[in-house]
């Protein structure tokens, strides 16, 4: 047994403890998550820019039919991903009331996507994204009206710059179009309404569906809703599409790519949500909107003003503050 007075080796003579090198598995996971985020950004921004190109610059002025193409691709690719490739377990619909709830969500979802696509005919992508950033405001309003859920006062205070920023951006937007603005606001509100409604309708344990299974069931219902709407409201869509296809050989490729990217945006959003934290997802989501704005300005060369940039910046900062307030005071 060592005596209390026995000399001990100086810590300076001991070999320095080296920090463990990152394992190959953690490196692979980091590369995997980074790849997912890149795909998520590429799909979301890609489908947004292609929508704008088709609806405003290409002469394909059929937002309802375009949304139907998106939903058809989502229905087909969701079925392949879940039933054949088993990316996620299949969650069956267990009752007729549950199916009715899913159908209700599908109709609201259709409205949000169609409204967003219509707004792209009249508004620049940059302003479209600025208005879309107000989703948390509408979510908070609907959550309060439908569930009486109250947040801390500081959380609501963070929504003031969100709305103020859009008002400022609207005043400074050279390409402002009232109808396009109304459709964009309506689409944003419908998107928020759908998220709150989903939490209410599919809240019980037996009825909860992950986003990929929900998309699997919502997409065919959306196609059934959009098909007669396209026939009635866009009666010449087939003739014009065939004519554009003869004039531009890339027309069908663009439609196919656009529709596939619409599904990819949903799939990668699900995977990023699964493999990252809620805070990381929030930060990435806010950054995604800013990246889309910058890229769209470079591609479409739409004029921007200092007031427009200031308004959008204020909105994004308000969204960040709102998310942080919710995280701290829930």
Q: What does the model show?
A:
This protein is mainly α. Helix content is 76%, strand content 0%. It has one domain. It has 13 helices and no strands. α1 packs antiparallel against α11 (251-275). The radius of gyration is 24 Å and the shape is globular. The N and C termini lie far apart (56 Å). Mean pLDDT is 89; it is low at 1-17.
Model regions low in confidence, pLDDT < 50 over at least 5 residues: 1-17
How would a crystallographer describe the biggest sheet? none
Strand content: under 5%
What's the pLDDT, averaged over the residues? 89
Number of strands: 0
DSSP helical segment count: 13
Radius of gyration, in angstroms, nearest whole number:
24 Å
Short characterization:
With 330 residues, this protein is mostly helical. The protein has helices at residues 24-57, 63-84, 96-122, 125-132, 135-147, 153-157, 159-171, 178-201, 211-233, 237-247, 251-275, 278-300, 306-329.
Give structural attributes:
mainly alpha; 76% helix
Task: Describe the secondary structure blueprint for this structure.
Blueprint: H1 24-57, H2 63-84, H3 96-122, H4 125-132, H5 135-147, H6 153-157, H7 159-171, H8 178-201, H9 211-233, H10 237-247, H11 251-275, H12 278-300, H13 306-329
